[in-house]
Structures are given as C-alpha cells and as structure tokens.
C-alpha cells in the first residue's frame, strides 16, 4: 500500500496511511521536536502498521525513536497502534482525561458502550434486523485497537512542551467525548483530529449516560466549533483528507450545514410525525447517498443530534411510545 508523506513546515510531516475501511485513509503527524512526537497512530488493520513504519522511515525515523504519542481521541483509527508503538519505543502516551478508561481498557469499555447503543435501538426506531447489523458494525471496532497504558492525561488549556514547538491542548468534545485539538500557536497550525475535516462533517457521538446527561454530542460539537472560530489558524491538519487553509470559513460551513439540516427536518415534519430512523432514511434519500447500513447509522447519529437541539430550541415536540421517540413540529 502506498503511503504519502508531506512536509508541512520543516520538522513537521503529514503521513497519510491507507486503511481498508470506508474512510480509506488516516493522517498521522510527526513533529521533529525533543521529544520526537507522533500525533495519532492509525488502527491495527491490514498493512497500516507497516505503512506507518514506511512513512516514518521517509522522515528519517524508526518507531523505536518516538518519545511522545498524543492521541486526539479514542476512535480506533487514531489510537489503535498506540500500544505497539509504546512497546517499541517507551514513548509517553498522552490523551484527554475522558479518554483514559477507553485507552487503558479498550475492549471492555467498547463492549459496555456497544451494549448501551444496542439498548438505544428501540428508542431510535431500529428493527431487530437493523439492530443485529448495528451489533456487527460495532463489533468490528473491538480488534483493531489495543489497550495502552497512559502516562499523562490533559483537560484542555495545558501546553505540551517540545523543543522547538509547543502544543496547546484545546478540549473539543462532540465527535467523541474525549476529543482534543492541538494548537501550535507560533506557526498557526491546528492538529484537528476529526474535529474538522475538509469534505465531510464529523459524525456526532451518541453519549451514554455515564459520560454526559445529553444523549448526543452534537450540542457540544457546535459549542466547540463556535469556541474555535476566533483561533488564528493558517492551516488545519485533520485526521483524514486534505489540509484546510480556510479554517474559519470551514467552521462557518459546518455551522451552516447543521442549520440547513435543522430547517430541512422541521419542514419535513410539518403535518406528520416521524421517528429517528424514518428521518434518517429520508435524509439519505434527500442527499442521494447510498442506502447502506453504515450510512443509516451515521444518519441516525446526526438526526438524533439535530432532534436534541430542535427540542431544546422548542421547535419540535417529542412523544415516547413503546420506547420509541416520535417527533412533531410544535
Ligand atoms: Zn477518524
């Protein structure tokens, strides 16, 4: 598999690793600092570890030379290889405080969340068949990452010092509850993980009750977007896809995307009642996306986020019948 290495500025490299998944590549970054720093790792999927080694070699390094691994969030494509890289190098592993449990106990934590999400199936209107598909969909994540010992947790606001580049930690929950952005103020670079991507809007998390009283991460995500609007960013370096030079403009686009979706949902609900699944299927048809299980689950997460916000805004009204949420316009 081909790896692409791009020098962002002297001493900072983007390593684009192919992965066998619907998002077909993940970006990780090397900072030639003291300590040698890696931002995100790629998953344990066929060929990815070798691709990372090849990419690092193009920058002149071996995994054993890593001094620090910073993980933007606990999704497997960003932290999967952390344990192996730490074993090879003894590197310090850093993540957000809310990522600690999932980092150190990957399988159990994911199983627990999976059970919660399956228990939510009826809430969103999923049939038993789709519920099963959902279980298979989620089970794929169990084996593509390994638990890793964490050396330091951050909350946001800290500076990870490195010679010559310091990274400021910004807490940006929503796509996941434990997401951070790393900001290199001197150069106006932001390592955005999945907080901001060039082509797609990040899917909001479904929050289990032990993480947050809110059912969806979308309100948090939109707050994070609004909070970062004033940040002076010359280039955003995302976890997938191309770098983003119009940071502020892209944030505005993301906000507008969600406003449009909310207006569409309200218009769609006029004179009828729908559940989350029905709204999700309608959305997939509306945007002419492929009707497959992955897209259905992604759409469900996004719709659920919009419904939480629309309810807060008093624009829709929710009724629960037989454990399923049904929405009407107020
Ligand atoms: Zn990702």
Describe this structure in words.
- Helix content is 37%, strand content 21%.
- The mean pLDDT is 95.
- A hairpin with a 5-residue loop joins strand 3 (25-31) and strand 4.
- It is of the alpha/beta class and 330 residues long.
- It is globular and about 60 Å long.
- Helix 8 (218-228) runs antiparallel to helix 9 (247-269) and helix 10 (276-286) packs across helix 11 (293-312).
- The protein contains eleven helices and 15 strands.
- The chain folds into two domains: 4-116 and 139-254, Metallo-beta-lactamase, Chain A, CATH 3.60.15; 257-317, no CATH class.
- Strands 1-2-3-4-5-6-7 form a seven-stranded mixed beta sheet, covered by helices on one side. Strands 8-9-10-11-12 form a five-stranded mixed beta sheet, with no helix packed on it. Strands 13-15-14 form a three-stranded antiparallel beta sheet.
- The chain has helices spanning 48-58, 76-79, 82-89, 100-104, 106-119, 121-124, 128-139, 218-228, 247-269, 276-286, 293-312; strands spanning 4-9, 12-18, 25-31, 37-39, 68-70, 92-96, 152-154, 159-160, 167-171, 180-184, 189-193, 235-238, 274-275, 316-321, 324-329.
- Zinc ion binds at residues 75, 77-78, 194, 239-240.
Characteristics of this structure?
330 residues, alpha/beta, Metallo-beta-lactamase, Chain A, 2 domains, seven-stranded mixed beta sheet, five-stranded mixed beta sheet, 21% strand, binds zinc ion
Indicate the topology.
Elements (H helix, E strand, L loop, with lengths): L3 E6 L2 E7 L6 E7 L5 E3 L8 H11 L9 E3 L5 H4 L2 H8 L2 E5 L3 H5 L1 H14 L1 H4 L3 H12 L12 E3 L4 E2 L6 E5 L8 E5 L4 E5 L24 H11 L6 E4 L8 H23 L4 E2 H11 L6 H20 L3 E6 L2 E6 L1
Parallel strand pairs: 4-5, 5-6, 6-7, 11-12
Antiparallel strand pairs: 1-2, 2-3, 3-4, 8-9, 9-10, 10-11, 13-15, 14-15
Helix pairs in contact: 8-9, 10-11
Bound molecules: zinc ion.
């Amino acid at each position: 598999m081909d790896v692409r290495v791009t020098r962002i500025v002297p001493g900072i490299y983007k390593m684009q690793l192919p992965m066998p998944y619907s998002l077909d590549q993940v970006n990780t970054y090397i900072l030639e600092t003291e300590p040698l720093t890696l931002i995100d790792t790629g998953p344990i999927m066929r060929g990815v570890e070798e691709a990372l080694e090849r990419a690092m070699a193009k920058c002149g390094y071996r995994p054993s030379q890593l001094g620090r691994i910073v993980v933007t969030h606990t999704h497997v494509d960003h932290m999967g290889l952390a344990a192996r890289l730490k074993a090879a190098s003894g590197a310090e592993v850093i993540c957000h405080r809310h990522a600690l449990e999932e980092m150190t106990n990957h399988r159990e934590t994911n199983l627990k969340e999976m059970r919660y999400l399956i228990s939510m199936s009826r809430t969103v209107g999923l049939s038993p068949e789709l519920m099963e598909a959902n279980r298979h969909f989620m089970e794929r994540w169990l084996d593509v990452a390994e638990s890793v010992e964490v050396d330091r947790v951050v909350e946001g606001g800290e500076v990870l010092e490195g010679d010559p580049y310091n990274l400021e930690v910004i807490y940006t929950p929503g796509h996941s509850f434990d997401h951070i952005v790393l900001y290199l103020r001197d150069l106006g670079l932001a390592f955005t993980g999945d907080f901001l991507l060039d082509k797609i809007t990040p899917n909001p998390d479904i929050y289990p009750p032990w993480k947050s009283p809110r059912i969806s991460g979308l309100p948090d995500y939109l707050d994070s977007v609004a909070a970062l609007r004033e940040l002076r960013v010359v280039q955003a370096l995302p976890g997938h896809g191309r770098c983003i030079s119009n940071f502020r403009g892209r944030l505005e686009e993301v906000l507008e995307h969600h406003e449009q979706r909310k207006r569409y949902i309200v218009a769609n609900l006029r004179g009828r009642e729908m559940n989350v699944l029905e709204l999700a299927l309608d959305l997939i048809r509306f945007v002419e996306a492929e009707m497959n299980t992955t897209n259905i689950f992604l759409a469900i997460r996004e719709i659920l986020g919009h419904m939480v916000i629309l309810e807060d805004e008093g624009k829709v009204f929710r009724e629960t019948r037989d454990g399923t949420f049904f929405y009407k316009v107020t």
